[in-house]
Hints:
The complex is a heterodimer.
Chain A: H1 2-11, E1 19-32, E2 35-48, E3 52-56, H2 63-70, E4 78-83, E5 86-87, H3 93-103, E6 104-107, H4 119-129, H5 134-147, H6 163-174, E7 181-185, H7 193-210, E8 213-218, H8 222-226, E9 229-234, E10 237-243, H9 258-266
Helix pairs in contact in A: 4-5, 4-6, 5-6, 6-7
Chain B: H1 21-34, H2 36-67, H3 76-90, E1 95-100, H4 108-122, E2 127-132, H5 136-144, E3 153-157, H6 166-177, E4 181-185, H7 193-200, E5 217-219, H8 222-231, E6 238-240, H9 243-251, E7 257-258, E8 262-263, E9 268-269, H10 275-279, H11 282-290, H12 299-352, H13 354-362, H14 367-404, E10 406-408, E11 415-417, H15 418-421, H16 425-455
Helix pairs in contact in B: 1-2, 1-14, 2-12, 2-14, 2-16, 3-11, 4-12, 5-6, 8-9, 12-16, 14-16
Amino acid sequence: xxxxxxxxxxxxxxxxxxxxxxxxxxxxxxxxxxxxxxxxxxxxxxxxxxxxxxxxxxxxxxxxxxxxxxxxxxxxxxxxxxxxxxxxxxxxxxxxxxxxxxxxxxxxxxxxxxxxxxxxxxxxxxxxxxxxxxxxxxxxxxxxxxxxxxxxxxxxxxxxxxxxxxxxxxxxxxxxxxxxxxxxxxxxxxxxxxxxxxxxxxxxxxxxxxxxxxxxxxxxxxxxxxxxxxxxxxxxxxxxxxxxxxxxxxxxxxxxxxxxxxxxxxxxxxxxx
Amino acid sequence: xxxxxxxxxxxxxxxxxxxxxxxxxxxxxxxxxxxxxxxxxxxxxxxxxxxxxxxxxxxxxxxxxxxxxxxxxxxxxxxxxxxxxxxxxxxxxxxxxxxxxxxxxxxxxxxxxxxxxxxxxxxxxxxxxxxxxxxxxxxxxxxxxxxxxxxxxxxxxxxxxxxxxxxxxxxxxxxxxxxxxxxxxxxxxxxxxxxxxxxxxxxxxxxxxxxxxxxxxxxxxxxxxxxxxxxxxxxxxxxxxxxxxxxxxxxxxxxxxxxxxxxxxxxxxxxxxxxxxxxxxxxxxxxxxxxxxxxxxxxxxxxxxxxxxxxxxxxxxxxxxxxxxxxxxxxxxxxxxxxxxxxxxxxxxxxxxxxxxxxxxxxxxxxxxxxxxxxxxxxxxxxxxxxxxxxxxxxxxxxxxxxxxxxxxxxxxxxxxxxxxxxxxxxxxxxxxxxxxxxxxxxxxxxxxxxxxxxxxxxxxxxxxxx
Lengths: 273, 467
């Protein structure tokens, strides 16, 4: 895995920032009957605090599996995952729950808002789990909704909001307990082009203003421009890690449409959803 | 980011402990409202089961209240009349009677008496009566026969000499111990010391361990009454037409029934023989008229009256036992079906809500919170379902009781709503409480498995794109 070793060496020029997520030779093996499926074949990455990372790769490449490892949603078969220098596999149920409540914010492709609660109630739910009082929670919740531009719809239920609006609420919810890390799994997967752009922009703002580390797993090429680094996964292994500056994004013009141009030029290197 | 220096990394991770029950309640309550149709399906099971329970208990409550009406109450005869016709109407129990012909007296009236008893019994729906010769072997064969031939009740008028032998008595003892009833009608032969003791041993203590035998003897004269009393203290309940004889008995501490014999589950209600009641035959004639008996003259009529009363008592005893066993079985079964249905509906709900559950765990909810959520949801449904079910069950049974226990005094034509007058308020309140508790307990029990399944769900499930 010399390529991976080189990649790790490259990463350490972010040395001034503390490493918030580190994986060490992480493997995941699924046993289906007598067949062993190696979803991850030894991946080591380091993610520094405040970075915006995109994990990219085709379906079945193991990117979702790696993503789940990093987000403390799954345990590796071999290797370690450290969040804030703490080995996640050694945490018990209470500590894991605490981690998910306060250190990590989750954003899902299907938004996953609680359907019976309003936008504000959704945003304040994790604050309740963190022990905040109702008043504090409400104030902070309204503040977050304002940041994502949905202050007037605080009492709307998810079915009264569009996809983009629901994802905004989800972002506000992810920020509820001021986490160090936000994990976004295909955040633009269920959104159209324009709305997807807005969400990516919002995530970028969170990253810059709140200094929260953002880690996304995505197919969406639009995410490239917003990321600091892109981790490419292919076939359970680290394919390459690129920095945004090093990316070769050709913006062609098909009738003046830049988005179409970006997709057209990268079609060869990645599968589209 | 925690930037404390020198603090070991592990200790920077806290332990999640906040389990807000109010939040669980809020989510559960809202969840029910939004998923109202699914909730109604779950609740309908509880509603049906509790309605069934409640209607059975309510019906029993009203009947019980009627039975508790004291003889002193002015409406006692009307109540008794209704109770007995109810027993007759509702009983689908058929009883098989064998009436042994003749008695020790050469009285030709005795033969007619057996026939008239048989006819009386046959005229009552569900009863089957036949005559048997006063032959020892015939009786032995009869009581030793298989179930379809062997009678439920054996009636003999006095003790025919032919039935006083050891073998017969032994056979009859076995018959009684197996649950059969032996009714000795008339004191003839019983008061003879030897016969009386042998045969009489069958009557008082012949049945042990909880069941009781119906026994009675009609006494024709006070002389016989005294003798009877001497042989069988406290075990014989004479039915007498002679007030004087009854008074004599009462003064010796015994009991006597004048004209009417009431039989209930192991209890005997009677008209207390006192100087005052003896002077007021009105209560008694109430009863007789409600039974359609115009006059009590004549030994035949008295006999058929006695037999009719005994028959009611037998039916009640037999029918009561059967209903209890069958009823409990039915209720238990319906409750189990209900629980299975609820568990099924909840499991479906859990499977559908995988995203919600996974997301909540990503937000910091502990397993116990998820369990709490589902248990609260199901108890709310249990409470609502039980309330509705109890109301429905009570309403149905109350309506039925209202019309069942509506009687008209045959003399004055005045109508009485006995169900309202003798409303069993306290008992029914108890049944309501039990019904509620049962319903909630059932739903919670049914929800335990689905709740645990939900709690075991991994947060990573929330990431799945499809169900």
